[in-house]
Design goal:
Mean pLDDT: 98
Number of helices: 6
CATH architecture: 4-Layer Sandwich
Strand content: 25-35%
CATH class: Alpha Beta
CATH topology: Metallo-beta-lactamase, Chain A
Low-confidence stretches: none
Number of domains: 1
Radius of gyration: 16 Å
Number of strands: 14
Structural class: alpha/beta
Amino acid sequence: MSVTLTWIGHATWLIDTGGGVLLIDPFLDDCPTASLKAKDVECDAILVTHAHADHVADAAAIATRLKVPVLANFEIANWLGKHDVKTAQPMNYGGRLAVPGGTAKMEIAHHSSSFADGAYGGNPGGWLLDVGGKRIYIAGDTSVFLDMERIGRPDRAGRRLDVAILPIGDIFTMGPDDSLEALAMLKPKAVLPSHYNTWPPIAQDAAAWAGSVTAAGLATPHVLEPGESVTLE
C-alpha cells in the first residue's frame, strides 16, 4: 500500500495512509509559508507533538469543525478540552493507539513545551507511525538524542524505518549537521526536512543539506516545497 506525505509548511504535514489522512502539528492561518488555511483542511485524525503555538495553533478549530480525534500529551489534551474539543485523546511516552490506517506511538523528544500564555504544556514528543504498511518517524522539535538508535531499530518483522521527518532549522531544534548524526542512528530509507525556512532565523539551504545526506550515504533525501508531496510505495 502506498502512503503519501505532504509538507504544508513549517512543521505541519498531511499523511495519507490509505486508510485515512493524519494531520501533524496544525499551524496554518498564522504560518507565512503554509500552503493551506485551517478552514480548507480535511483529515481523519490530528497528532500534536508539543504545545508551542507553531505546532498547535489551529488544532482546536480543525478538531471542532471535523470532530476528529486529537492525539496529544495529557496537558495538551486537557487544554483542548477547555477549548471545546470533545475528541482529545491524552497520551504519554510509550503509549500506542490506533489511527486511520495503522497505529501511532508517542516517542520522546528533547525540547520545551508551553502554551502561548506561558502555561505548562507537558512533555514534548515525537511520533512513530506504523501506517499503510510503512514505518514513519516524526521527530517533532528536538535535538539529537541517543534513543534515536532504539527508534531506528528494525521491528519484530525486520522492517526498518521507511522515512524520518527531521527538523533542520537549528537554533530551536537540531540543525543540518546534527541531523546527519540523527540519521546515522535512525537509519531510515528516506528523510524529509521540516521546521525550516519559515522565518529568517531558521532559514537553511535544503539543497546543500540534501547533498550532505546523499554524500554520507545516510538516506534518500526528499526536499519539498510547501504543498508538495512524496509517495512511499
